[in-house]
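Regression test attached.
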Amino acid sequence: MNIIVLLKQVPDTTAKISISSGFMDESTITKWSMSPYDEFALESALQLKQNCNGNLIAITCGPDRCSKMLTDAAAVGTDKLIHIHHEGYLDSIQTQTLLAAAIKKFEGEVIMCGKQAADTNSGSTGPGVAELIGASCITHVSEVKYENEELIATRLNSLGFEIISTSPPSIFAFDKGVKELRRPNVRGIMMAKKKEITRLTPEDLGASLTNSNINLISQMPPSEKAPGQKYEGTDSIHEIVSKLRDEANVI
Amino acid sequence: MITIIAENSGNTLHPVTSQLVNAAISIGSSAHVICPGGIGAVEATKITGVNKVTSVLGDCFKIFDGSAWAEAINSSIDDDSNVIFTSATSQGREIGAIIAAKRKVPIIQDAISLDSTIEVTRTIYSGKALEKIQSSSKCVITIRPNSFDSAPQGNNAPLNTVDKSADLRISVKEAIVKASERLDVSEADIIISGGRGMGSIDNFAELESLADMLGAAVGASRAVVDEWGMPHTMQVGQTGKTVTPSLYIAVGISGAIQHLAGMRSSNYIVAINKDEDAPIFNVADYGIVASWEDALPVLKEELSKL
Ligand SMILES: Cc1cc2nc3c(=O)[nH]c(=O)nc-3n(C[C@H](O)[C@H](O)[C@H](O)COP(=O)(O)OP(=O)(O)OC[C@H]3O[C@@H](n4cnc5c(N)ncnc54)[C@H](O)[C@@H]3O)c2cc1C
Ligand SMILES: Nc1ncnc2c1ncn2[C@@H]1O[C@H](COP(=O)(O)O)[C@@H](O)[C@H]1O
């Protein structure tokens, strides 16, 4: 079975985001990492690979710097690395079109991704790609197993969770998983350095991009809230409650 | 006209639906509301600004399968509708993304404001920055709950019913209810969250009784979810839920950046913490420097007087 994991490189969650001339300044980011939910997708993809003797392919779409993340994925056991090379802004449908074309080219049957990337915070890619390739789509997944030719997923919801079954092709968008993430060992790291990365352009995938209708106007720091009031001790609680009721109208 | 895919909350219309209608009105448009599975359709006809409600009835709406729902809904979307709104909840984001891909148009997720030129403001990098993006053509936009007020009631829009289903691609083998029967944090208008400062999981009973007085949901920091085994569905923050209630009360929570990412855009924030330098006070409208053992009984007494 061909298992594909979609990995996105993002500024590490500890990185400070600086804005210069109205846009996020990438040059100030000192550490780039795999988007946190993608790590859970990768861990589950590795387990599924062992579970059904599959072949695991990692695909990323982005600029040169993303190659390093693919090498990290190889260090924990990814078999094949695909880098769709693209510099600059892509809107949701453009990203999905490229990833869908690559999934088709490498005949992905089970596709795993993050429920939301740590930069865009969108959650569009998994469902959108599922539609483009005609796969079933399950989001907020914490675990996937292969049993009796069926894929069995745990889907988190507001009440607890559901056990869902589906058959390939399927896309699973991962939430925080239940599993411990594996770390690479020295041998893995050494092998990964030698692993070839297949670099493709949008044209190689036969997916020439049409112009985007989305115009990125500006990026800015979050608006700072006016400083609130701080009170020592519990004497103020009477006043706070009446403000919440009479001024804020929230209780 | 803007097409709105309604959000349901159990068997009724989720309040965010009325906020989506108000968002449409605010940019000078009327709204066609589509109710998947017919849930809340009659309620939707009463929202001012709605000029048509379509109730889509089909077997596929018995369980949530975003692909099947989107397929069943899609033919009810007006062709001349340039913009489609869904709510930025987990279901709304998924249905919106599938519909956008079906129509080969972009989706802009989690708008917190927008104007008539379809310039949208949204947060990126887990709230560490904002961006403004504009769509010059057809698109889908999901809107964050509580970013717009509800539209007024008092309408009587026509209601059409269509029978349309689609093949389910998934089946639910088992549903396990883990969280308490309490209100979910992503649905609540008031949230009371506890952190490690609560001392132990048993002390959450104090927060629950306060929540009952206010009709609030109980949330938690990651520290207590990871260390005390609270359900992950209660977790607020970067790797939990992003919430925007009208009132968020943080008790014994330090206010780590990852926690703030999930709650800093709440309308009003009250923090109770015994450390006056706790970073939660930087985002709190009202900060109470006290232990919860001292503060909660006084707070309950004051509330009971209302
Ligand atoms: C990648 C990543 C993702 C993360 N995602 C999340 C997330 O989604 N959500 C989240 O919450 N965290 C998240 N975290 C963890 C976050 O960094 C903090 O560790 C966590 O939020 C701390 O929880 P806390 O405030 O409950 O505990 P602490 O930081 O230990 O704070 C406890 C507070 O309680 C106060 N206190 C103690 N006793 C009392 C008392 N009797 N009365 C009143 N106050 C008292 C203390 O002064 C202190 O401020 C994430 C971390 C990482 C690295
Ligand atoms: N450029 C990309 N390359 C590879 N995977 C991606 C890319 N963009 C998004 N994804 C995947 O889709 C998930 C959701 O992204 P988003 O829709 O941007 O929130 C991510 O967590 C990744 O798994």
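Expected vs. actual: identical. The CA atoms of residues 63 and 87 of chain A lie 5 Å apart.
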